[in-house]
Fold this sequence. Notes:
Elements: H1 3-9, E1 16-18, H2 19-32, H3 37-53, H4 56-64, H5 66-71, H6 77-89, H7 96-103, H8 106-110, E2 112-114, H9 115-128, H10 133-149, H11 152-163
Helix pairs in contact: 1-10, 2-3, 2-10, 2-11, 3-9, 4-9, 9-10
Amino acid sequence: MSRIEVIQEAPLTDDPLYAHEIIGYVLVTCKELGMERYHGDHLAVQTAIQIKKTSPKVAERAFNNASSLSKTKGMGVGELMKWSKAKSLMKKPVAQEILDRISADEELDSKEVSEIQAAGYLSLAALELNFLSGQLTPLEMEFNYQLRVLPPDKANTFGLNFLGLELEEN
């Protein structure tokens, strides 16, 4: 079954995801899209920051209005200049201090949002990092696909490993 068929047969739902799973899904999404490693790392961190600072309702609206939301950042030469600057800033690894702050955030440990809200947080994060508006649709589609094919426990493990945390045994 093609990626498009998987996405069409299983659109995003209100099923819950935890923040560490979302981070893992974002990392895998970026890898599958062939993004430079640190771009994906920065996007995962910014997604976690968005989960922390933005309400679930705003994230859900962001997902439902993604196409119009991307236009608020501008288009054309200005958008390209912002993206060029953002790319140069994302060539370096995420600062350890930022990773430590996210990994120490107990509220984020237990934060649960829907798949739809998670996609909204991802869009908001991409816009915050000045991703091009044309990059949002493939990003959202691949994220949805990964939600269908990558087991949540693996995504959680990827997210925890990225933050330097260990999986707690039950």
